[in-house]
Specification:
This protein is of the alpha/beta class and 297 residues long. It has helices at 3-12, 25-34, 43-49, 60-72, 89-101, 131-144, 164-178, 193-202, 220-226, 236-255, 268-275, 277-287, and strands at 17-22, 39-41, 78-81, 106-110, 151-156, 182-185, 208-210, 230-233. Helix content is 46%, strand content 12%. It starts with a helix and ends in a 10-residue tail after the last helix. The structure holds sulfopyruvate (SPV) and magnesium ion (MG).
């Protein structure tokens, strides 16, 4: 099944679906192997892995290069965190064209201004896009896609900016009418209450996606009860990698020996397996004349 169709099915299914963050091909592959049905290509994680801030410091073509490796390495759909679409409607529609060429299944855009800032950094101070401008961007993206199943998710930042429930609903409804396939309603609160209030008023009009990073204590059953379509574990591979790398690096620095490190890290064979070394060995048996390592006289 096409990756776009897979993602559309996840978004529109009656069940709660959960997708997980990846920030490069290796983490994307790990997400697929764990059993997840989709990948969140997180702007925060990809930028952090590049050593830059989540402020569009990495160019959108640099993000595309990472995505291409992620897409090549996996068979489950990738939903790109496309920030604001990297500019106006024109940049956003060109992004859609380039994503489709790389078999990226969908993109989420947020109603902020380019260059954006991560929602958890001084959210209240962040300006929001005008509703009309953002709706034009959504329409341009939907008009550009050539695969009907390509998914455009519109992310509402009204709660992040402190604009309240009424504004969140107004924006979500406008984005639905502009053609978005789902609404991502974001919150920085430690509880689920503002999202729950939104869901009550929303009344199942259109699929809703959430990112429970800050309200991680909320049991997943409550997301189901509220009628959420998709939850995103948005940055946990990056944060796991940071913790693991800091631990092993400081230990190796202190101990000046590899003696105790070996049991704390993945075996080298696991690295080769994840890279697909076995497939290359098979291909060599098929395509390389046996015993030849270059011509010798
Ligand atoms: C991301 O993963 O980059 C997101 C989610 O956009 S958040 O960091 O919560 O804004
Ligand atoms: Mg982001």
């Amino acid at each position: 099944m096409r990756k776009t169709t897979q993602l559309r099915n996840l978004i529109t299914s009656k069940e709660l679906e959960v997708i997980m963050e990846a920030h490069n091909a290796l983490s994307a592959k790990i997400v697929e192997e764990a059993g997840f049905k989709g990948i969140w290509a997180s702007g925060l994680s990809i930028s952090a892995a590049m050593g830059v801030r989540d402020n569009n410091e990495a160019s959108w073509t640099q993000i595309l290069e990472v995505l291409e490796f992620m897409s090549d390495a996996t068979s489950i759909p990738i939903l790109l965190d496309g920030d604001t679409g990297y500019g106006n409607f024109n940049n956003a529609r060109r992004l859609v064209k380039k994503l489709e060429q790389r078999q990226i299944a969908g993109v989420c855009i947020e109603d902020k201004l380019f260059p954006k800032t991560n929602s958890f950094i001084r959210g209240e101070t962040q300006p929001l896009a005008s509703i009309d401008e953002f709706c034009g961007k959504i329409r341009a993206m939907k008009d550009t896609q050539t695969d009907d199943d390509f998914v455009v998710v519109a992310r509402v930042e009204a709660f992040i900016a402190g604009w309240g429930l009424r504004e969140a609903l107004r924006r979500a409804e406008a984005y639905r009418q502009a053609g978005a396939d789902a609404i991502l309603i974001h919150s920085k609160r430690a509880d689920f209450e503002e999202i729950e209030a939104f869901m009550k008023e929303w009344g199942g009009r259109h699929p809703v996606v959430i990112v429970p990073t800050k309200y991680y204590r909320t049991p997943t059953a409550r997301f189901r009860e509220a009628g959420i379509s998709m939850a995103i574990w948005a940055n946990h591979n990056l944060r796991a990698a940071i913790a693991a790398m800091q631990q092993i690096t400081s230990r190796l620095y202190r101990e000046e020996t590899l003696l105790h490190a070996e049991s704390c890290v993945a075996p080298l064979e696991e690295v080769f397996r994840l890279q697909g070394a076995e497939e290359l060995a098979e291909a060599e048996r098929k395509y390389l004349p046996s015993g030849l390592n270059g011509d010798r006289p």
